Amino acid sequence: MLYALLRYERSDFYGETTRDANREYCGNQTTSSPDTTFNTTVAGLLGDLQVATPRIDGFFAASKREVAGSNVSVYGIAQCVQTIDSAGCQACMEVAYKNIQKCPPNADGRALDSGCFMRYSDKPFFADNQTINLLPFLKTSEISSLPTPSLHLFSCLFHEVFKPIKLCFL
Predict the structure, then answer these.
(1) Under the phi-then-psi rule, with left for phi > 0, alpha for psi from -120 to 50, and beta for the rest, what region is 76?
(2) Cys staple from 58: which of 19, 48, 131, 148, with CB 3.0 to 4.6 Å?
């Protein structure tokens, strides 16, 4: 199956990275782990996704982090549209990160903008083997290219993130 986002406007939005309508969508349940350790873990994971995603070929990353002192994990993804460049992706990720920081200690949150999105949850929404090691992309020196996640993984995650929209091509 292939999923796609359909957008139609009179204005030229092809290279658009951020808009005034950017915002967060926070879940309505809190996590079972202590707020401070959960919040710290979420902030760390999303901060790393914010930095790494514009440096990854395809502008997509999925990662998982254990919350210290508990049996809870945080799952996170970030993605920019491929019609923008790395600088545009970075600018969009900065706005998304700022917005999604309003969500913890809620167990899940999403940040949407015209050029990117971020999501985290204490429930898995991708398999452990579909993550990418962010460490090589967090270094400030020259970055080597790692394999990017498959289009199928993106399709599945995209569908999960945008469930309410559900514009799909089968």
Answers:
(1) beta
(2) 148
Tell me the per-residue pLDDT of 79-89, one tens digit each, with 9 for 90 and over. 998 888 999 99
Q: Is 2 in contact with 152 (CB distance < 8 Å)?
A: no
Distance CA 38, CA 144 (A): 31
CA neighbours closer than 13 Å in the CB half-sphere of residue 148: 16
Q: What is the pTM of this model?
A: 0.73
Q: Is the N-terminal amide bond of 149 cis, ω within 30° of 0?
A: no
Q: How far apart are CA 111 and CA 97, in angstroms?
A: 7
Does the pLDDT at position 164 exceed 80?
no
Query: Which CATH architecture does the domain made up of 16-150 adopt?
Result: 2-Layer Sandwich (3.30)
For Cα atoms 7, 12, 24, give the angle at the middle one, nearest 5 degrees: 55
Q: What is the pLDDT of residue 161?
A: 46
